[in-house]
Amino acid sequence: MKYNGMPSLMQIVFFGSFKKQLENVFSFSREEAEKISLNAKKEYRKIISELPEFEKGDRFKMNIVSCAQLAAFVLSMPERPNVGLLTEYYEKAMMTEPMKFFCRMSGKKKFGEKDILSMKKTEKFKAADRNPYSWNMEYIEYPDESGYEARFTKCGICTLMKKLGLYDLTPALCHLDYAMSEAGKSEEFVREYTLASGGPYCDCGYKKKN
């Protein structure tokens, strides 16, 4: 994958937040956070360079780039973090004010005609059949018309985290779905399984709020 484009933009938007939360969550000193961040930039470019290009129309490119960011910081830390602290770190690093605004805007369109058509298009696309770092998803409407489930049978984050030797830390990324839905304000997020926790699939359920 080329660094120019989305990966470069994501670094500009989020790396400062990742650096700041090194101090807030992990209690690194400012000097330690600076050193980790400098190393993370190198790791990030390396990870991105080893990823395949995503097809036009693949909606999950941002997901894998976000995973690459977190992985780069983890690989640059002096000690491997536990999944609990990493979950807190990733959520605080990602849920910046611009990100919350993006979630609110997306939430206003949730369950609309364009949203449903997009989900059905993604179901048919099956990008992970051609790119192991992407996702395959099934779209399942709730029979009571209370929302829908996006059921993932292949997960690019799982593939990348396995490649990097970080698979046990994958649940830290899965948890962000809850924070993003809460910021969206239009739906309640429900989940029973994740692939990373040994489930048969990842279920992302979105129930309409009254």
Structural commentary:
The chain is α+β, with helices and mostly antiparallel strands. Helix content is 55%, strand content 12%. It contains 9 helices and 4 strands; from the N terminus they run ααααααββαααββ. It has a 4-stranded antiparallel beta sheet with strand order 1-2-4-3. The longest helix is centred in the first third of the chain and has 21 residues, at 6-26. The model has no long low-confidence stretch (mean pLDDT 96).
Q: Taking all residues together, what is the mean pLDDT? A: 96
Secondary-structure-based class equals alpha+beta
H/I helix tally: 9
- The backbone outline, from C-alpha atoms, is globular
Which band does the percent of strand residues land in? Answer: 5-15%
Poorly predicted sequence stretches spanning 5 or more consecutive residues: none
Which bin fits the share of residues in helices?
55-70%
Helix and strand sequence: HHHHHHEEHHHEE
Largest sheet: 4 strands, antiparallel
Distance between the termini: 42 Å
Radius of gyration: 17 Å
The count of DSSP E runs of length 2 or more, i.e. the number of strands, is 4
